Amino acid sequence: MNEIKTIYENKDLLVVNKPSGMRVYSPRNENTLMGKLIKKYPRLKEAGKPNRYGLVHRLDQPTSGLLLVAKNNEALSFLQRQFKERKVEKKYWALVSGSVEPQHQEIKTLIGPTAGNPGQRKVYLPHSPQAHKGKKAITEIHVEKKFSKYTLLKVDLKTGRTHQIRVHLSWLHHPVVGDKKYQFKDSPVPEDLDRLFLHAFYLKIKLPSGEEKEFTSPLPQELKQIISCLY
100 near 174, Cβ under 8 Å? Predict the structure, then answer.
């Protein structure tokens, strides 16, 4: 597994760069991000509940990028409250299939579990008979660059539903490339891409000290290489 890089650290908080393919936590925390962090920072066990401990939010296993981990319960509550109140700015890079139009758009639906498959999510429309199964999900997308078969998007995540970006972009018929769960059978995939092309590159949040901080994570080298080979 790739190394977990620390982007920022103070007495209340760790900001780390999660590699693609690494689970954030599990019941036994073997080969997970939290399991590895606890070995390095044993006092993280003093924050939050077992297994998750000081984890402030989550990223899907195939997604890479910025993740916040609180070092104490006060910081955990403070930071999670900002996520709940939608005061955190979160931005992602996503390479998707096809040519996306218009250049800027807001996707606003409900997202909830798929019947018969609780590990998968789907879009529910507000006035549909099954609308009660979903929760409000808002994603803003901005076209950064177009290629012959793909579009590079900058994505602003306004809510934090499970698989939200992946579900919304698939619903638009522009699934994230490399997405084994939500892409279509005929979705093109760039040669040599062996992961999901989704990376959490920007996060802005107020710290318990009152200071507002911005954190960034560059696009991983393997994704830069994919982009350089597109035309």
Answer: yes
